[in-house]
Amino acid sequence: MKKAITAVIMVLLLLCSCGTQTADGGGSDIGRVMSSFSNIGEGGELYTDSRGRLHFCDFTTMADVYICPSPNCPHTDPKSCSSFGMDYCPILYSGNIYFFENSTEYTGNGIECTAKLYKANTDGTGRIKMAELNGLSVEDYSRILLFDGKIYFCPQKIEFTDAGVSTSHGSAYLYSYDFADNKLLELGKLAEGYSCNTWIFGEFGGNIYLNYSYAENEYDYNILFDENAESPFTVKNAKYNLKSRSFEELDYTIDYISGGYLFTSVDQDSMTMHCPDGSQIKVPHFGDVSVLNGYVFDRTSLSAYDISTGKSYKLKTDNKMAEFIYYEDDEYTLRKYGKDGERVYSKVVQADIIGAEIS
């Protein structure tokens, strides 16, 4: 039986994470990217199951617990179990869990969305509203960057017809929220059009790297399944400088940010790996990137690239769904999915996962 999280998670928050790395971030001074589906930090991962209940898996003990203070709770009733209701982009930060909630209401100007940010104790109780964004919503697939005591995210403005039906036309923005002074700040409007979409890759060199897409005109959705049809979308890559508070459009593709490294490309043959020390290295074009302990793990090719030597090695697994997400004390934590979609975490030492050199 899964035990209550209260004592367990409070201990975790007090422990130092020296020598640990996460694929979405790195050390404590590197930005951490989170979403409703991947949320690694504080020595484990917050995640929601298929019923919307929030869990925490501790990567040291591999204990998986509900965010609920009651040991005898069956975790089935949203009215009495605190593991429910925190499934929109939960954030574990400084001894609390933060999460978003969207609401819609009729006003004198029609239907209006409001995104609300809440704070709760680490057992899910004591929830209080910290801030709200009138006219905007934060979707559950949003990617949120936690860096230097702030979160950066991309809320959207959804437009409705006179009949109250949402349309595909809207706008996307970049916002920040400062935990210290409880302040929301609009940093800029990214896009306006049909089917706006945004993706925050992370922070590198004092910049937030992101891309966004939109269609200038309405389009037939069937065109998306036609390989010969021209895409209706405009796609832009950009970076936001945290010091100058300015945007710059980029003429190359942002592929990944992982473990303190930035990966970019201009074609499908190779990538440029931008290193923390400012150097750049030409590397193979990876289909997936997870940087841990000096290796670039690519589960699509089942390979590991040694950054220090430039050599590639085969992985001792044929499971392309296994994600390398964490490294501590010479052990890698992998995240897989069971037949019913449940998360399965496991640990493996380097000798048991990195195999022969690829010639």
Rg: 21 Å
Strand content: over 45%
Determine the number of helices (DSSP H or I, runs of at least 4 residues).
1
Tell me how many strands there are.
30
Dominant shape: globular
Uncertain regions spanning at least 5 consecutive residues: 1-6, 8-18
User: What share of residues is helical?
Assistant: under 10%
What structural class do you assign from the helix and strand content? mainly beta
Q: Termini distance?
A: 48 Å
- Average pLDDT over all residues: 91
Q: What's the story with the biggest beta sheet?
A: 9 strands, antiparallel
Describe this structure as you would to a colleague.
By secondary structure, the chain is mainly beta. It contains 1 helix and 30 strands. It has one helix at 6-14; strands spanning 21-22, 32-34, 40-41, 44-48, 54-58, 64-66, 91-93, 96-107, 110-120, 128-134, 144-147, 150-153, 156-160, 166-178, 183-204, 207-215, 233-241, 246-250, 253-258, 261-265, 270-274, 280-284, 290-292, 295-298, 303-306, 312-315, 323-328, 331-337, 343-349, 354-357. Strands 2, 11, 12, 13, 14, 15, 16, 17 and 18 form a 9-stranded antiparallel sheet that branches. It has a 5-stranded antiparallel sheet with strand order 23-24-25-26-30, with no helix packed on it. A hairpin with a 2-residue loop joins strand 15 (183-204) and strand 16 (207-215). The radius of gyration is 21 Å and the shape is globular.
